[in-house]
């Protein structure tokens, strides 16, 4: 790893792998946000139906609770993914790796 030409290639490969591994999460996040928006719309429709016909509450309550729970679970997963992205931070820099390696010597 001490060879000057090896370290930049190694760091570039690591950064590429980080990006490659984050792509499925990015795709999942897009789908998740779309699904969350769909659920929000459905919940709003159910709530509007309940406002118009409160007597339907006993029949619609379970469905409304189910939709709300699904949306809550999607929100939790969204926060998990965003947390992973936040932890990834900036790409690895060659100078940082060099500094770490020289501190070990």
Describe this structure in words.
The structure is a single chain. This protein has 105 residues and is mostly helical. It has a domain at 20-88. Helix content is 86%, strand content 0%. The chain is built from three helices and no strands. It has helices at residues 6-52, 57-88, 94-104. α1 (6-52) packs antiparallel against α2 (57-88). It is rod-shaped. The model has no long low-confidence stretch (mean pLDDT 91).
List keywords for this structure.
86% helix; CcrB-like recombinase; 105 residues
Short description:
It comes from Enterococcus durans. With 105 residues, this protein is mostly helical.
Distance between the termini: 12 Å
- Total of DSSP H or I helical runs spanning 4+ residues: 3
Kindly provide the radius of gyration, computed on alpha-carbon positions and rounded to a whole number of angstroms.
Answer: 24 Å
Helix content: over 70%
H/E element sequence: HHH
Mean pLDDT: 91
Shape: rod-shaped
The profile of the biggest β sheet is:
none
List the uncertain runs. none
Strand content bin: under 5%
Number of strands: 0
Protein name: CcrB-like recombinase
